[in-house]
């Protein structure tokens, strides 16, 4: 953990003149010709270095692929034009209008068959990352139809004339990537397809250069540390929206069979759409952890300190717990409503995302709860990067829309930091040693090291606390940092916010890609049509390091020569 | 499937040509055959995929099956074209509500939505109407008050979200002004960002970089109030401006990775200087001038991150979501107060409550011309005007391929009553008309398949079907006359002149005369469909009391031919347990296409049974010792229970048609008289006939 958590320059406290000068710094010192290429439609005047931009007059079209949704729109727009799913309704035959027969009162499946949770959600997925049971041909069909309908219904432009930008997760199985690209290239005449990664795009859309991106997605929760637009580390967990929806489905199934008759408790009999509707409307999460919910005693004292500060704000959510909300009855939606205590609707979140009731030691590697994942990801970053990233935490993905979840994760990470510090070493012996050391030190005044993790934990809570902690922090002075600051005096660099847990909101990966593309920045992975059709994915050059672009490799941004193409991080 | 039974779908042949994967092509050349477990003989050419039975139940089939009327036909490729094998070009954009055309230059700037008064209700998607609130008639002039948009279906109106309009025209611009400026709304934005957002601001790039102090003052005020929630739009624009400024500030340095691709080299005088000295600064010269060039400018400025809200940074307050949580639980919200996923799909991403929904301008639609993907010939070209529904070119497939229609061959009520019940007790006594929504399992049904030719050439058709339909519910199918001719779509007068009695046919199948001799035993099974309304159209005159005979067409007209299909629906899981059905189910996954006259396919079944059993036992992995299907319907494993639509009886039929084409020159005299310059054409495709739903009870 870096010591330079000098938060004196937290955004809001800046004198006006300073910030004015700041915006002035956009204009460079020398007289400057305005850059034509930044205009939206005048790119023909600009002498851009890339050859494709001459023909790339038309705005590029950006598609963001998730495992369930496809977002599409034009570059330079703030939000995608449409979000298209690929559920069973979308994969019906042409001319099969069964979906429209659905009336308000009572879907004809009055007796929905019980299905296993996997099948229940599986019908709604475009792809899974595990290709074992996947039918690639089916995925190609789905992608083709989704693209065609998106173009015809929403984008209203001729498919294949303009450049295509795909925002993809940073890990894609090659067969999947290959069939995706083959489908697009062979079906339409896209001149080139640019691939961009999700996490750095989210960082760009937040206006920062480094961040910790927490993507609570469909199949996985992925925590990615991005430093200077480069992915540094990423941690994954299966505690994500899919299992959350499955658990909500089980909850609704249990509610519909009021007599707790569902013996197995595994199969789901409720309608998926209804369940997703309930999940998106009513699932919520307590921003503060109640102390009793913490499973082990060691966490007890950690949360205790937070109790007294959190108690006052907790009042609001505590009163909410007794509320009763009414949901459409899962057995007969549209006709009857059932009353459910509001507190029950936070149970799936607690159970699935926060692994409530499961001791840490029983968690497998791939099912760590997101707070632990965030902590581990931060821990695996180098301390300087960690300090930068921890104060720029970005939440994206469908799960980030659950009210309260962001604050909850931040709070839990704070308590983890408070409990363990930044050390991966755990265990009784270590604890004993630490205690022995502490007893040795007790005679001395409390060290800053002991207080520091505490105030990082407290800091996001209220500004008053923070200001007190700053005083202590200022004792630590980094001579190198000071020197740099002295040298850069003319440049009014404000010391960046770091070392505190802070959330930064992003406009989402799609908006990031739109921003990036509208600034005419090329991606590192730009696949030309002819080259791909010659060799397919095998044509990508792998020895990128020899070209000297290695540092840029993971950022997804490209510089220089494009005689050969590469898959960069996907390769 | 949701279409009313019976129906016919046609599978576009393009489904058989998989997406070419360039890398796979290379791989397959290296290692010739990745042996497919389905294909026992690895030496077969890859083309034998065509020989596999089309399975209408496979998940991919949904993407290749089309109703016949939706298919096109390319006259140059002589191939059916489905929406997957055509390319489309937009001819015009129009609003489906007001039918006004939008010029192509305006489409994008209007966000692909109608810029006029057309709006859809955000909560129920019905079109909204512009209504006035007050209509005061003072003297001769009527004073009309503020205007609202209201939905006639769900009674939603813009009053619910507190919006009134001053004029009844140009509502979209009024609305966008309001939603950008109102401070009450959650999606508010400060006025300065409204200015940034205006399209003019992108042109005034100089102003952006050197903003006059008077203008920037209000923008810089915003950091004082730390948490102005910016509209995502405004944030996006703020971020964009921020990045532009940063890039122009840093792009003078060539080392900056972001500056490289910006054409930065030419945009600033400093860089220009560098370029001009490119040629002078050879090694000799630079040594001459000392290190003048070597000492570079100061460190390249590094792009920084956004620091203030005005630059697009947003740091949410820690307790921002508490209010949302409480509001959701609150009494005035409830289920209906929260926006559904469907309602949210086109709204701003942070909309959560119904009160935040905004009326949606109607999405534009397009008229598109379609071209064949392989030969680029135009297949469909609509007229330009949005109001016109006519086409200049339209090559629909139905004018080239025979239109299939299917109907049950019902024993007519008269026939059943006439026949003595004792002789044919099994079939006649139960039902008179076949209920296609509940076909009784294991009871033979006879269906009439009519193929109607729209071409001006006579066509010779060969039908083939697997003797047992693929899937778990195996139904036996027999086409009684798989090979027949269809007459040309000649002038209607020709038929009239030839006389309606017996259409001449020159095929192997003997023409059935209308006065077929009937035996008493077969009457019930094959009585005429007098009750079917379509019977009168294609049936002809005296169609009752006719027997379906193997190898004979049922009926024949000027340009249509009807043959009989005999179907024995299989049993469903949970239905009747029968030994024979189980054996059929365990047939191997490779049902060979049985072409033609296999009326008695029980022999083949029993033959294949013995070896398929041994195959299947090794395959059935998960279920272990348990028999592959639990017919009692009580299976705990849901996979073994009836899947949705598994009870639909669909028959894949392979259609192969041959005809002599005259190159479309003179159609009238082409009937039956092939001249020298005719071209033999052939077209083959899979067709799926949906017969009905198999009932659970016998």
Describe this structure in words.
Chain A: Residues 40-51 have a biased composition (Low complexity). Chain A: Residues 480-494, 542-561 have a biased composition (Basic and acidic residues). Chain A: It holds the Pfam family Actin. Chain A: Residues 1-51, 291-315, 439-497, 538-571 are annotated as: Disordered. The complex is a heterodimer of chains A (571) and B (698). With 571 residues, chain A is of the alpha/beta class. Helices cover 39% and strands 11% of the residues of chain A. Chain A has 20 helices and twelve strands. The radius of gyration of chain A is 26 Å and the shape is globular. The two termini of chain A are 33 Å apart. Chain B is an alpha+beta fold and 698 residues long. Chain B starts with 6 loop residues before the first strand and ends in a 5-residue tail after the last strand. Chain B is built from 20 helices and 24 strands. Chain B is elongated, with a radius of gyration of 36 Å. Chains A and B meet through helix 1, helix 5, helix 6, helix 9 and helix 10 of A and helix 1, helix 2, strand 2, strand 5 and helix 6 of B.
Approximately what portion of the residues of chain A adopt beta-strand conformation? 5-15%
CATH topology title of the domain at 38-98 and 113-205 and 507-570 in chain A: Nucleotidyltransferase, domain 5
Q: What is the percentage of strand-forming residues of chain B? A: 15-25%
Helix content range of the residues of chain A, please?
25-40%
E-strand count of chain B? 24
Q: Please, what is the average pLDDT of chain B? A: 68
Largest interface: A-B, 144 and 126 residues
Characterize the biggest β-sheet of chain A. 6 strands, mixed
């Amino acid at each position: 953990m870096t010591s330079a958590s000098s938060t004196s320059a937290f955004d809001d406290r800046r004198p006006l003149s300073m910030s004015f000068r700041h915006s002035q710094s956009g204009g460079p010192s020398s007289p400057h010709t305005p850059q034509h290429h930044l205009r939206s439609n005048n790119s023909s005047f600009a002498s851009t270095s890339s050859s494709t931009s001459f023909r790339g007059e038309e705005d590029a079209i950006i598609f963001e692929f998730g495992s369930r949704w496809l977002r599409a729109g034009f570059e330079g727009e703030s939000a995608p034009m449409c979000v298209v799913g690929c559920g069973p309704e979308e994969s019906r035959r042409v001319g099969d209008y069964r979906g429209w027969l659905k009336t308000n009162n009572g879907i004809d499946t009055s007796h929905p068959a019980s299905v296993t949770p996997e099948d229940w959600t599986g019908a709604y997925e475009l792809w899974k990352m595990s290709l074992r049971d996947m039918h690639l041909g089916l995925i190609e069909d789905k992608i083709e139809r989704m693209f065609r309908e998106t173009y015809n219904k929403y984008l209203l432009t001729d498919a294949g004339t303009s450049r295509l930008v795909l925002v993809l997760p940073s890990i894609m199985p090659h067969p999947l990537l290959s069939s995706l690209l083959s489908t697009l290239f062979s079906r339409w005449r896209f001149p080139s397809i640019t691939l961009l990664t999700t996490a750095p795009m989210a960082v760009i859309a937040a206006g920062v250069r480094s961040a910790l991106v927490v993507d609570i997605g469909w199949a996985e929760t992925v925590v990615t540390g991005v430093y200077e637009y480069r992915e540094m580390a990423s941690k994954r967990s299966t505690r994500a929206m899919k299992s959350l929806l499955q658990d909500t489905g089980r909850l609704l199934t249990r509610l519909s069979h009021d007599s707790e008759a569902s013996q197995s408790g595994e199969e789901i009999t409720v309608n998926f759409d209804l369940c997703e509707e309930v999940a998106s409307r009513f699932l919520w999460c307590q921003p503060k952890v109640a102390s009793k919910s913490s499973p082990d005693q060691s966490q007890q004292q950690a949360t205790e300190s937070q109790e007294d500060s959190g108690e006052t704000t907790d009042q609001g959510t505590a009163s909410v717990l007794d509320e009763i909300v009414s949901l459409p009855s899962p057995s007969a939606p549209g006709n009857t409503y059932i009353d459910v205590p509001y507190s029950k609707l936070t149970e799936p979140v607690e159970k699935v995302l926060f692994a409530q009731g499961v001791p840490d030691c029983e968690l497998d590697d791939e099912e760590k709860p997101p707070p632990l994942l965030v902590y581990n990801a931060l821990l695996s970053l180098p301390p300087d990067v960690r300090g930068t990233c921890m104060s720029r935490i970005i939440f994206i993905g469908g799960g980030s829309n659950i009210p309260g979840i962001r604050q909850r994760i931040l709070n839990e990470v704070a308590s983890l930091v408070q409990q363990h510090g930044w050390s991966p070493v755990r265990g009784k012996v270590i604890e004993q040693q630490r205690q022995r050391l502490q007893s040795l030190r007790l005679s001395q005044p409390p060290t800053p090291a002991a207080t520091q993790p505490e105030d990082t934990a407290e800091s996001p809570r209220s500004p008053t606390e923070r200001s007190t902690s700053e005083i202590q922090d200022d004792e630590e002075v980094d001579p190198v940092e000071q020197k740099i600051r002295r040298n850069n005096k003319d440049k009014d660099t404000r010391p960046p916010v770091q070392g505190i847990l802070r959330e930064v909101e992003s406009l989402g990966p799609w908006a990031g890609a739109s921003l990036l593309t509208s600034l005419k920045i090329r991606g590192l992975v730009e696949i030309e049509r002819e080259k791909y059709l010659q060799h397919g994915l095998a044509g990508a050059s792998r020895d990128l390091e020899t070209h000297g672009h290695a540092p840029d490799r993971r950022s997804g941004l490209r510089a220089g020569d494009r005689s050969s193409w590469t898959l960069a991080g996907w390769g | 499937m949701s279409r009313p039974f019976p129906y016919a779908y046609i599978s576009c042949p393009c489904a058989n040509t998989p997406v070419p994967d360039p890398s796979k092509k290379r791989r397959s050349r290296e290692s010739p055959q990745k042996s497919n477990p389905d294909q026992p003989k690895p030496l077969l050419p890859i083309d034998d995929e065509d020989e596999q039975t089309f399975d209408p139940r496979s998940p991919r089939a949904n993407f290749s099956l089309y109703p016949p009327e939706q298919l096109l036909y390319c006259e140059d490729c002589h191939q059916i074209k489905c929406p997957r094998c055509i390319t489309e070009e937009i001819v015009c954009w129009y609003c489906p509500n007001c039918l006004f055309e939008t010029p192509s230059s305006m489409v994008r700037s209007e966000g692909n939505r109608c810029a006029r008064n057309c709006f859809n209700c955000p909560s129920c998607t019905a079109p909204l109407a512009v209504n006035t609130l007050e209509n005061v008639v003072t003297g001769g002039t009527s004073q009309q008050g503020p205007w609202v948009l209201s939905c006639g279906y769900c009674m939603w109106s813009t009053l619910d979200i507190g919006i009134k309009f001053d004029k009844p025209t140009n509502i979209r611009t009024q609305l966008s002004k309001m939603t950008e400026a109102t401070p009450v709304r959650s999606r508010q934005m400060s006025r300065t960002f409204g200015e940034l957002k205006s399209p003019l601001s992108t042109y005034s790039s100089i102003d952006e970089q050197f903003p006059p102090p008077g203008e920037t003052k209000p923008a810089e005020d915003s950091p004082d109030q730390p948490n102005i929630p910016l509209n995502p739009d405004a944030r996006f624009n703020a971020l964009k401006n921020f990045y532009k400024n940063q890039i122009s500030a840093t792009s003078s340095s060539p080392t900056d990775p972001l500056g490289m691709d910006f054409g930065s080299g030419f945009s600033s005088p400093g860089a220009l200087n560098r370029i001009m000295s490119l040629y002078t600064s050879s090694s000799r010269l630079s040594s001459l001038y000392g290190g003048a060039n070597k000492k570079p400018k100061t460190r390249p400025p590094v792009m920084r991150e956004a620091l203030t809200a005005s630059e697009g940074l947003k740091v949410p307050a820690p307790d921002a979501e508490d209010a949302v949580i409480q509001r959701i639980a609150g009494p005035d919200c409830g289920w209906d107060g929260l926006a559904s996923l469907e309602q949210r799909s086109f709204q701003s991403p942070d909309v959560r409550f119904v009160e935040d929904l905004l009326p949606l301008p109607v999405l534009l639609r397009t008229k598109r011309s379609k071209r064949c993907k392989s030969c680029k010939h135009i297949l469909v070209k609509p007229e330009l005007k949005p109001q016109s529904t006519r086409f200049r070119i339209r090559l629909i497939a139905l004018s080239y391929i025979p239109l299939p229609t299917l109907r049950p061959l019902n024993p007519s009520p008269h026939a059943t009553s006439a026949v003595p019940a004792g002789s044919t007790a099994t079939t006649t006594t139960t039902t008179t008309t076949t209920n296609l929504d509940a076909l009784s399992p294991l009871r033979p049904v006879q269906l009439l398949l009519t193929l109607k030719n729209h071409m001006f050439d006579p066509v010779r058709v060969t039908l083939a079907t697997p003797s047992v339909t693929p899937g778990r519910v195996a139904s036996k199918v027999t086409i009684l006359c798989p090979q027949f001719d269809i007459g040309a779509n000649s002038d209607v007068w020709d038929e009239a002149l030839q006389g309606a009695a017996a259409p001449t046919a020159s095929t192997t199948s003997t023409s059935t005369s209308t006065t077929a001799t009937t035996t008493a035993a077969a009457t019930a099974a094959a009585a005429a469909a007098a009750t079917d309304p379509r019977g009168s159209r294609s049936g002809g005159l005296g169609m009752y009391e006719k027997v379906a005979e193997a190898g004979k067409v049922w009926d024949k007209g000027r340009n249509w031919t009807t043959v009989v299909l005999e179907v024995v629906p299989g049993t469903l899981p949970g239905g009747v347990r029968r030994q024979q059905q189980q054996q059929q189910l365990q047939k191997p996954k490779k049902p060979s296409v049985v072409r033609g006259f296999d009326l008695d396919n029980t022999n083949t079944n029993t033959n294949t049974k013995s070896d398929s059993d041994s195959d299947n036992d090794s395959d059935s992995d998960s279920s272990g010792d348990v028999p592959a299907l639990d017919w009692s319907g009580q299976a705990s494993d849901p996979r073994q229970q009836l899947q949705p639509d598994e009870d639909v009886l669909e028959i894949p039929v392979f259609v192969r048609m041959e005809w002599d084409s005259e190159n479309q020159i003179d159609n009238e005299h082409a009937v039956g008289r092939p001249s020298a310059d005719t071209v033999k054409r052939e077209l083959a495709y899979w067709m799926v006939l949906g017969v009905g739903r198999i009932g659970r009870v016998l």
